């Protein structure tokens, strides 16, 4: 008897719009080409071909299919990026099982909240993973070496679905949320493949390239890297997370794997540019660098241009709700007096509009407005949050009567002399930390959950020459013990990702307020910048 998995792998419906079919297309044309090149140790790189990746995917799909899950059932995928993790997410895609990537570093409390929110049927982690405390209602398993070992079966399901549709959910990415709970961004197969097509039209890499990915798998930037590489018939080069903090080892991975394209947040280059410029210059294979998630300090960008004189540098802009939307080449050389990089124009098939507070389109130069994105790569909505979904997916301001929805990004920009856009801030309390989206309200909510905290506010501090940091101002309850012994930091770490835990906690007798009675963040920023 033919199983559903065998049928799905052999005959995916609407093949060109399915995530797995799109990313495995090269298996039919260049099956022996490298799909993943994994750094194992110095001078040792393990290569997985497209044919091997396809076979791994097929094996994992058959194993998942035997568990009786129905299309639409959510699978938590806990792993760093690897050939097996990519095969597992492709196997989930094959069966119509939305995968939810999480990091092995995710605190238990946060992971449990994601499992509860999604009603996940199954949690799988890479072999060697140390996660143990998974709620009883969720099945558990481990994957590696082409095998899925099930520790606890998922609850029996009734299969109601037969045909996978392009509008079905491919994956969910959880980001920081203003309500204090993680916010699940739901992306369909059609949306993500539409984005991939727009990105590939930029000609960033080709079949002979090796794309180094430095972002955690739970961060949508990693899925951008995987799509850029596999969609181009190139190879993915996962940079091991434990080596990222050591610039010597980071550069060794790039050199040993022969990486030709390096993607990541700008801060991955900071220490290398400062302490190991000769080693950066020795990366003769690197022909491209794509960065996203935060500003690249212009002095550092100039230095990178000098050290990699033949590399194409690309400023990528976008949101998780559409993965990204623009890819803008950095001028070479950077003009003297340049103060801000452009985020350019949306990729082909999409368009960025500027809208004022009254909902009218802005056409003039240098007039700031909120970016609204018209794109076929628009997310489906936020999981189980119709109110937030309706606030982000709004009627097209160019023609509200059409029924078309666009993404209200919350990002501010102004138009340059040639119609190009320049990012200039946010309309809300969202900030970027090392490329990760952080809602200040979620961090504040966690601080206020501590029984000895009366008031708390969080802000982003930007100081010259160093990375921005999260700083918290806290007022303790009357009679509370001193919280300056690290207990509050540890309390935050139990529920928040590491990049969301405040780097600094300042204890005050009271929070300063404005004439309107709101917390005076500007006053706090000035005070903390001065070391107060």
How would you explain this protein's 3D organization?
The structure is a single chain. The chain has 2 domains: 4-329, 3-Layer(aba) Sandwich (Rossmann fold); 430-529, 2-Layer Sandwich (GMP Synthetase, Chain A, domain 3). Helices cover 27% and strands 26% of the residues. It contains 16 helices and 26 strands. The strands form 7 sheets. It has a 6-stranded mixed β-sheet with strand order 11-10-12-13-14-15, covered by helices on one side. A 5-stranded mixed β-sheet has the order 4-3-5-6-7, covered by helices on one side. Helix 4 (50-65) crosses helix 5 (83-95). Residues 1-14 have low confidence and may be disordered.
Write a concise keyword list for the protein shown above.
single chain, 532 residues, alpha/beta, Rossmann fold, GMP Synthetase, Chain A, domain 3, 2 domains, 6-stranded mixed sheet, globular, disordered N terminus
């Amino acid at each position: 008897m033919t199983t559903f998995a065998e049928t799905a792998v052999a005959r995916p419906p609407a093949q060109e719009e399915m995530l797995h079919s799109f990313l495995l297309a090269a298996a039919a044309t260049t099956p022996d080409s490298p799909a993943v090149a994994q750094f194992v140790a110095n001078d040792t790189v393990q290569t997985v071909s497209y044919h091997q990746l396809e076979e791994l995917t097929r094996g994992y799909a058959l194993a998942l299919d035997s568990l009786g899950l129905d299309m639409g059932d959510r699978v938590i995928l806990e792993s760093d990026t690897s050939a097996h993790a990519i095969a597992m997410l492709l196997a989930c895609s094959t069966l119509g099982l939305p995968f939810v990537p999480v990091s092995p570093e995710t605190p238990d409390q946060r992971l449990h909240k994601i499992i509860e929110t999604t009603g996940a049927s199954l949690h799988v982690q890479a072999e060697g993973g140390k996660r143990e405390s998974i709620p009883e209602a969720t099945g558990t398993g481990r994957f590696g070496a082409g095998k899925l070992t099930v520790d606890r079966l998922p609850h029996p399901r009734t299969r109601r679905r037969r045909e996978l549709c392009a509008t079905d959910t491919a994956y969910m990415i959880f980001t920081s949320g203003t309500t204090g709970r993680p916010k699940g961004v739901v992306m369909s197969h059609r949306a993500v493949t539409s984005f991939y097509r727009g990105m590939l039209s930029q000609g960033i890499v080709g079949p002979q390239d090796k794309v180094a990915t430095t972002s955690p798998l739970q961060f949508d930037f990693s899925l951008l890297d995987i799509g850029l590489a596999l969609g181009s018939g190139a190879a993915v080069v996962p940079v091991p997370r434990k080596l990222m903090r050591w610039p010597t080892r980071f550069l060794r991975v790039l050199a040993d794997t022969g990486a030709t394209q390096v993607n990541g947040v700008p801060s991955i280059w900071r220490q290398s540019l400062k302490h190991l410029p000769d080693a950066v210059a020795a990366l003769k294979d690197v022909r491209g660098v794509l960065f996203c998630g935060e500003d690249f300090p212009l002095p550092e960008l100039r230095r990178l241009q000098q050290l990699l004189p033949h590399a194409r540098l690309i400023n990528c802009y976008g949101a998780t709700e559409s993965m990204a939307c623009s890819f803008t080449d950095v001028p070479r050389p950077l003009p003297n007096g340049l103060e801000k990089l452009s985020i350019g124009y949306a990729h082909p098939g999409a368009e960025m509009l500027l809208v004022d507070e009254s909902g009218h389109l802005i056409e003039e130069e240098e007039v700031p407005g909120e970016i609204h994105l018209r794109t076929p790569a628009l997310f489906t909505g936020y999981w189980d949050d119709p109110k937030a979904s309706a606030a982000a997916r709004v009627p097209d301001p160019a023609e509200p009567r059409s029924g078309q929805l666009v993404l209200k990004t919350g990002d501010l920009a102004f138009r340059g002399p040639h119609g190009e856009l320049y990012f200039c801030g946010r309309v809300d309390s969202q900030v970027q930390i090392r490329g990760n989206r952080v809602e200040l309200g979620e961090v504040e909510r966690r601080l206020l959950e501590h029984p000895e905290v009366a008031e708390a506010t969080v802000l982003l501090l930007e100081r010259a020459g160093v990375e921005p940091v999260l700083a918290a101002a806290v007022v303790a309850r009357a009679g509370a013990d001193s919280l300056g012994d690290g207990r509050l930091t540890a309390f935050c770490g139990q529920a928040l990702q590491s990049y969301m835990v405040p780097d600094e906690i300042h204890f005050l007798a009271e929070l300063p307020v404005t004439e309107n009675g709101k917390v005076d963040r500007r006053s706090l920023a000035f005070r903390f910048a001065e070391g107060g």
